[in-house]
């Protein structure tokens, strides 16, 4: 395999035809001294890809190439890059640049950069004005800060979905004390939720309760490491868990219609509810339930590089792997349809097929 890069990707041209991907040429931003060019081998399919191509989060820059769970090999590194060498197995998640100078960037909170977060796709590079393009493609250019070396113990296809889906739940778990003696709930057992169960277990939590809107995923949730499965579609589902959990991570891609008061009632006073899902309608916050129960309601975006590297080490040490279905990248239309229809167990991963 040569290290010459081809720059092509599968793009959506019209949000009304979001399953219709066409292979187009990409013009990447000019190379920077700290940039790394990655030859993409695999890319996971995240719920956020679907919100973007359908226009559910607002009109994207068209044509749009999505995908932000990327794994491959470093093909070129800029003269000031220190942590990555050509040939290294590396990955990129949902962010490829930030200012690197603000308080957030300097305290391992670069996903909350106060000046400019450059997302992996559908984002504007501040210097060049180039629109970023994601991983349903042959190659990506990223600042080295957002390039993660992948431990040898992890296969590239397993590491890829961890770089958005995994770290997005790992970060709020560790920031909110998930570990021995803690009782954690995970709402929504999709791509993110199936990681949250595994990481909560891997971090040593005492209880990991899986909340799912139907009974269909019960067996899977237990296999993933849940100590209990609760069907939120059933009236009174919350009663047996009253005031017992320390933390809930919510990945359910639904609003309104989420049983928020009932879910909050399962938290002990002082407990925390952390929203990571970004449904297309805002979730109403039941403030009275928070007040009378002494509960904090928060949100969480992606994770820092520090957390991503810790997560990869934990996954390597504990043998944590996503449950994936691999398909050729040209089938990205089928993959996004399956996510939209809730038919994925639990992540689709696209395998490179662009001639190069
Ligand atoms: N905060 C961040 O940084 C960040 C990062 C990545 C993704 N996200 C967002 O997180 C969300 C989940 O992403 P994902 O990739 O995990 O998606 P996913 O695989 O589609 O999982 C979403 C889960 O939500 C639940 N759900 C979906 N439709 C529902 C409905 N009508 N009623 C009740 N429950 C429903 C389902 O769980 P059950 O069947 O178990 O109920 C489903 O498995 C998306 O909104 C995505 O944009 C946020
Ligand atoms: Zn994502
Ligand atoms: Zn910053």
Structure write-up:
- This is Enoyl reductase (ER) domain-containing protein.
- GO terms for molecular function: oxidoreductase activity, acting on the CH-OH group of donors, NAD or NADP as acceptor; zinc ion binding.
- Pfam families: ADH_N, ADH_zinc_N.
- InterPro entries: ADH-like_C, ADH-like_N, ADH_Zn_CS, CAD-like, D-isomer_DH_CS1, ER, GroES-like_sf, NAD(P)-bd_dom_sf.
- The structure is a single chain.
- By secondary structure, the protein is of the alpha/beta class.
- The protein has 2 domains: 8-164 and 322-351, Quinone Oxidoreductase, Chain A, domain 1; 166-299, 3-Layer(aba) Sandwich (Rossmann fold), CATH 3.40.50.
- It has 9 helices and 17 strands.
- The protein has helices spanning 47-53, 103-106, 156-175, 191-202, 218-224, 260-264, 287-293, 305-318, 332-340, and strands spanning 8-12, 21-25, 35-44, 70-77, 89-92, 95-97, 118-119, 139-143, 147-149, 183-187, 207-212, 228-231, 245-250, 267-275, 296-299, 324-328, 347-351.
- The strands form 4 sheets. Strands 3, 4, 5, 8, 9, 16 and 17 form a 7-stranded mixed sheet that branches. A 6-stranded parallel sheet has the order 12-11-10-13-14-15, covered by helices on one side. It has a two-stranded antiparallel ribbon with strand order 1-2.
- Strand 11, helix 5 (218-224) and strand 12 form a beta-alpha-beta unit.
- Helix 3 crosses helix 4 and helix 3 (156-175) packs across helix 8.
- The longest helix has 20 residues, at 156-175.
- It is globular.
- The model has no long low-confidence stretch (mean pLDDT 97).
- One zinc ion binds at residues 98-99, 101-102, 104-105, 113-115.
- Residues 98-99, 101-102, 104-105, 113-115 line the site of one zinc ion (ZN).
């Amino acid at each position: 395999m040569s290290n010459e890069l081809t720059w092509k990707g599968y793009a959506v041209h019209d949000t009304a035809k979001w399953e219709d991907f066409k292979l187009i040429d990409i013009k990447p931003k000019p190379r920077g001294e700290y940039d790394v060019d990655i030859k993409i081998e695999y890319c996971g399919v995240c719920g956020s890809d679907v919100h973007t191509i359908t226009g559910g989060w607002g009109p994207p820059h068209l044509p749009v190439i999505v995908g932000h769970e990327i794994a491959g090999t470093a093909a070129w590194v800029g003269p000031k890059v220190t942590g990555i060498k050509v040939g290294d197995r590396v990955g990129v998640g949902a962010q490829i640049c930030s200012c690197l100078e603000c308080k957030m960037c300097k305290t391992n909170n670069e996903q909350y950069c106060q000046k400019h977060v450059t997302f992996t796709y559908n984002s504007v590079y501040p210097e060049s004005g180039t629109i970023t393009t994601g991983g349903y493609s042959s190659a990506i250019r990223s600042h080295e800060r957002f390039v993660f070396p992948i431990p040898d113990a992890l296969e590239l296809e397993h590491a890829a979905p961890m770089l958005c889906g995994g770290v997005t739940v790992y970060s709020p778990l560790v920031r909110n004390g998930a570990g021995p003696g803690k009782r954690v709930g995970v709402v929504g057992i999709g791509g993110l939720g199936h990681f949250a169960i595994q990481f909560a277990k891997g971090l040593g939590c005492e209880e990991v309760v899986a909340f799912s809107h139907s009974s269909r995923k019960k067996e899977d949730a237990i296999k993933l490491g849940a100590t209990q499965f609760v069907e939120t579609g059933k009236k009174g589902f919350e009663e047996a868990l009253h005031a017992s959990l320390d933390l809930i991570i919510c990945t359910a891609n639904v609003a309104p219609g989420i049983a928020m008061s009932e879910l909050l009632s399962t938290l002990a006073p002082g407990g925390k509810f952390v929203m990571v899902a970004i449904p297309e309608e805002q979730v109403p916050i039941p403030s009275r339930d928070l007040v009378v129960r002494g509960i904090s309601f928060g949100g969480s975006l992606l994770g820092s590089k520090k957390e991503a590297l810790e997560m990869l080490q934990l996954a390597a040490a504990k043998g944590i792997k996503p449950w994936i279905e691999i398909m050729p990248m040209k089938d990205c239309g089928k993959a996004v349809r399956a996510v939209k229809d809730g038919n994925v167990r639990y992540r689709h991963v696209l395998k490179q097929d662009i001639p190069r």
